[in-house]
Amino acid sequence: MENLQILLRQHVGKPCAPIVKVGDKVKKGTLIAEPTGLGANIFSSAYGVVEEITDEMIVIKPDEEQKDEFVPIEEGTPLEMVRAAGVVGMGGAGFPTAVKLDAHFEDGGYILVNASECEPGLKHNIQQIEEEPEKVIRGVKLCMEISGADKAIIAIKKKNRKAVEILDECLKDEPNITRHLLPDIYPMGEERAVVRECLGIELEPSQLPSAAKSVVINSETCSRVAEAVDERKPSFLKHLTVRGKLNGGHDAHVFMDVPVGTSVGALIERAGGIDGEYGEIVMGGAFTGKSTTLDAPITKTTGAILVSMPFMDLHGASMGILVCACGGNYERMQELCKKYNAKEVSHCYCKQAQEMPNGSRKCERPGNCPGQVSNNLQFKKDKCEYIIIGNCSDCSNTVMASGPKMGLKVIHQTDHIMRAVDHPLYRTLRVSKQVDQDLNVVDNVENN
Length: 448
Hints:
single chain; alpha/beta; CATH 2.40.50.100; Rossmann fold; Ubiquitin-like (UB roll); 4 domains; 5-stranded mixed sheet; 4-stranded antiparallel sheet; 13 helices; 22 strands; 27% helix; disordered C terminus; electron transfer activity
């Protein structure tokens, strides 16, 4: 068995501090690092021996024989147990769940469950709902109890018909938990988009869901809450999707309960190995993930490992970069420009990509985009042959309304991945959002 590299930073906040030393024997669920501020406990995901400790990680050499048993957390209140178990947001952000659930709703509030499987090509959240709906719903109830919320809404894309039908059957006797159907566009899983779609409340980029008396929780996170409270189980496992240019085929390979610290390469081998030449390996989704290496370890927040098609060689063509808050940041877009062998001559930000105090950017209205004519005009003025965009579905649609008419050749940051997972490229929307929303209304009427 390969060594497990367990990173000390798997969440929002500062890295955790190790509480073990080299040579210590550990079990599944042994606490090995504690937060030094905002953060979450980190546990061993295997029986073994601590082989190395660095500023970034704890390396564990697993025993040849692995048991199913784990070291349980101490009993306490549900909130204390979620905190002790080190549960974090497993949709990508990694915010400590105990902090989020400590909401103290006193006059009504909402748990909004993000089951949108927002990033294209991923399947693990939906598969869990299909296979373990009771555990997810149990986690939802616990989140309601802990936060004081009196209602919950499970937000899921309409296209996931089987999962929707399973949820509807399970929720027949749950009057305080409903589900809301989302259109199949990106980024319906962004937390302010979930609030808007479920509650009809528009939040400012600087506002948290708490401003709408709500807490947004990923569906896998709900199941980990249930494990923490009902099974006293620490959080050291992760569901994820491996997909792309693989010998095992282009369909999604879903792996459930993978030990944190497992390498990217090991999971790719489980999916059949890489099929010939490829462009890059991305950890996370096609929009928000980052390029990675075969020896990199997964964390509590890893949602996917994607192997892309090779990059086209643009032979030094002039390229403009359009940065959208819903996709890669400027540095990521520059990286892709270089991998296409293009020369950056201009860059712009989507006019809704509002800069935040920490230097990051958030979209003013995620999923609802204004026109991009002014940016396209700037790219044309700067003599760009190509533009690379990282925009959401609607924003890509607005780019395509004018860019090609100006002679600009458009590449989306996800193209090399979408081709590898047999997914339509992000260009012009094929079905209007309004049609999808109308279908949503009809479906809700039929099921109520």
